[in-house]
Amino acid sequence: MNKTYKKTTYRRKNGARNNGSLYGKYKLPFPPLDPHKTSPETEQAVLEVLNEGASRNTRRSYDDALNYWKSWFQLRYGKPFSLPVSIPVVQQFILDHLERTSLTGRISHGLPPEIDEFLVSDGCKRKTGPLAISTVRHRLAVLSNAHFSNKLQSPVKDISVRQLLQSFQRTYARRGKTPDQKTAITAESLELMLATCTDGLKGLRDRALLLFIWASGGRRRSEASAAMMRNLSQIDSRTYLYNLFHSKTDQMGSSARSCSNKPIVGRAADALTAWLEASGIRDGPIFRQVRGGKATDAISDHSVCKIVKNRARLAGLIGNFGAHSLRSGFVTEAGRRGVPLGEAMALTGHRSVDVFLGYFQAGAVENSSAANMLPETSLDSI
Q: Cys-Cys with 196: which of 144, 259, 271, 314 at CB 3.0–4.6 Å?
């Protein structure tokens, strides 16, 4: 009897909760939410979570792209930028920033020189001239995302816009204009760069940084600048393991995956030990700015890129260098040395085999048996 009574009482309490009497009973100081609508507070909270979940580079590139849209629109149309953006505006943006061939055979883009120069002087562009097609695609993607975030239909998805962009893509391919790729820093180039790292504490840092990035599988500049001591474990005097909890291809931080551990061994470990001992770093960021002969704040991903470019310049290397040069160089070198594909990808963290193979095969082709079937001596001379 007691058990039955308790169950009945529980049902009545639940029933009171379901029919709304609980709200009236407690007299809450705010109105109940509408289950069929998203409140402004909830929308704001969602935006905050999305913003926090995005990487620093993603947020910065998104902001830069939107600022460019605002400046370009203001100069082109003489009024402030606002959403939604029309299809003709998107078409004009594409025509302004990509090169086309006129009926007279002249290659040009549609952005007036005066606007182009103003965008450069205002800091929106690095130099005058057309944008890379990858940059245009990125800025269109940001515009599209801005529309979706505001529950607006994206003009970028219109068939006329997609056809126009595809036509430019085919035209660029016929001209042989490929995406701007950084020059790969293979083992020989890396040795020349390391030889320049003789300038005190900065040299120790740069040597440790270059080897950390390259030897651990070609870490991205954002991963190197965000490297923390708490994720670094020393196994022995010449072996470290760095646990890459979060990366571009592992945004969820799947730390349980064995491939998140990146080895730093041999000379790379020696260089890291030398930097940590000289700088006195015991916790916090691994790689830091050097000011007044002391390690201070964490370096930025932009600083990583500057360090790579500077060491390549000091080494007398010729090419288009950047932080990605170390990543592509590692993959190219792995291809040269015949490292198994799966083993190399486990270190780099590549998810796309197509992207990885672009560099891997470039290195492997140098030792290809098929490419070296022709004898050094002419058959006619035999």
A: 314
